[in-house]
């Protein structure tokens, strides 16, 4: 089973842009107007950050799990998870 890296996706209340950060991938901060834009940028930047900051090789197999973190009251919390398999 490949190693999985978590990414948290939020919507900025001030700008309405989507922002993604990761507790598992040091240096990953992505901002875009659409979820698709964030996902494309994650696919582009994450492999390099994982290689540079965590010492994985370009031929290592791993996955990125993107979860949506809602800003609504916890009693009405929503979540979404998308697996992005990356093979560099």
Characteristic terms for this protein:
TTHA1013/TTHA0281-like, 5 strands, 88 residues, 23% helix
Structure description:
It is a single chain. The protein is α+β, with helices and mostly antiparallel strands and 88 residues long. It has a single domain, classed as TTHA1013/TTHA0281-like. It is 23% helix and 36% strand. It is built from one helix and five strands, in the order E-E-E-H-E-E. The protein has one helix at 35-54, and strands at residues 3-11, 18-21, 29-32, 61-68, 81-87. The protein has a five-stranded mixed β-sheet with strand order 3-2-1-4-5, covered by helices on one side. Strand 2 (18-21) and strand 3 (29-32) form a beta hairpin. It is elongated and about 40 Å long. The two termini are 16 Å apart.
Concise account of the structure shown:
The protein is an alpha+beta fold and 88 residues long. It has a single domain, classed as TTHA1013-like (TTHA1013/TTHA0281-like, 2-Layer Sandwich).
Q: Biggest sheet: strands side by side, in what order?
A: 3-2-1-4-5
Name of the top-level CATH class: Alpha Beta
Class computed from helices, strands and strand pairing? alpha+beta
How helix-rich are the residues, as a percent range? 10-25%
Order of helices and strands: EEEHEE
Fold blueprint:
Layout: E1 3-11, E2 18-21, E3 29-32, H1 35-54, E4 61-68, E5 81-87
Parallel strand pairs: 1-4
Antiparallel strand pairs: 1-2, 2-3, 4-5
